Amino acid sequence: MTNPSDDRRQFLGLLSLPERRFLTDALRAETVGGVLLLVAAACALVWANVWPHGYETVRDYTFGPGSPLHLDLSVEAWAQDGLLTIFFFVAGIELKREFVAGELRTPSAALLPVVAAVCGVVLPAVLFVTVNLAAPDGHPTGWAIPTATDIAFALGVLAVVGSHLPSALRAFLLTLAVVDDLIAILIIAVFFSSGIEFWALGAALAGLALFWFLHRRGVHGWWLFVPLAVLNWALMHESGVHATVAGVAMGLMLRCHREEGEEQSPGEHIEHLVRPLSAGFAVPVFALFAAGVPVSGKVLGEVFTEAAPLGIVIGLLVGKSVGIFGGTWLAARHTRATLNPQLTWSDMFALATVAGIGFTVSLLISDLAFPDDEHLAELCKEAVLVGSLACAVVGTLLLKRRNRYYRRLYDEENRDEDGDGIPDVYQQQG
């Protein structure tokens, strides 16, 4: 294996031991969440196609307080605007930690995943717009749908197929997804916010400032921060800015560096508490009420004949894989980075293909992009499922080719013959 001290120069090298331990815990939670996400999506498809009336009745059931904050929302809207805020809150903490203590804390380490994520967003959008401008029935306004990577779904697929990927590959996928989440958050905030209510936005910003001030002053107590967070979310929802932005903002405000005597920073501690709620409940419930689309030969035919859904499939399968791989290769070629000699660029392409699995955010943007055309939004969701399935199958086949070799690397990396809890490879290299 490679020396941890070479990480800045070597791409996909051995992680430092503290970073490896943190990522192992994070990836374990994401993997379990990914499996639950797969189950929820399958249940949604079965429910929506076997008993469509029951599914629509539950999905469209409205409850909650009305004026002045207009929170009388359907079950689908509560899942989309409410539960996904928990997901984006965790994403905000992940972003903050990556920037202050993780792989993104230095420009040299951040360059490859940032370039890869940006290329993995731009190329799918370009392909989608190209397909839709070339067709008379095109809808280029849906360009953002195929741009997002779903880390939970991707890791869930890896868990199901049983691939023993080295930790460096999994870590790169997680870091890539964190940057991808940041871009998705900016896209939602800039392009899918409308009818701004400035009084509510001002009140939300004041609430966020109070959240930051109390946290920085060392004030503790869920009984204070949870109601304040809910109020900030409600005000952001009323303002016209997408409500999930409030979750990201509060996540970014948490301190994620450790001070003297701390085993965990406040951000890491809160992420450890909230991540199971996000991965185990919030995201699967969202999937249950977002992925329930009709499946038939006619609908699947429209996915490949209508410009918008076809652009999504091409964007996910071709745009994400080629964009991520090409961006990584170009960044490595024009920097001092060298690929870990135990891995090949074909491994990177396989991982890039798996990163084409776009689910949670892609389903969300499908509704946001076409709020007045339910049929088109459902076709786009169908295309997200088809494109993600295609990426999962192709990525699995590419990874399975080398799974025996990955298993040897994985066993070598995790061997602990003296049973002291520290893999031997770290002790051998001091």
Describe the protein.
With 430 residues, the protein is mainly alpha-helical. It has a domain of 270 residues: Na+/H+ antiporter like fold. The chain contains 17 helices and four strands. The strands form two sheets. The protein has a two-stranded parallel sheet with strand order 1-4. The protein has a two-stranded antiparallel sheet with strand order 2-3. Helix 1 runs parallel beside helix 10 and helix 3 runs antiparallel to helix 10. The longest helix is centred in the N-terminal third of the chain and has 34 residues. The protein starts with 9 loop residues before the first strand and ends with a helix. The N terminus is likely disordered.
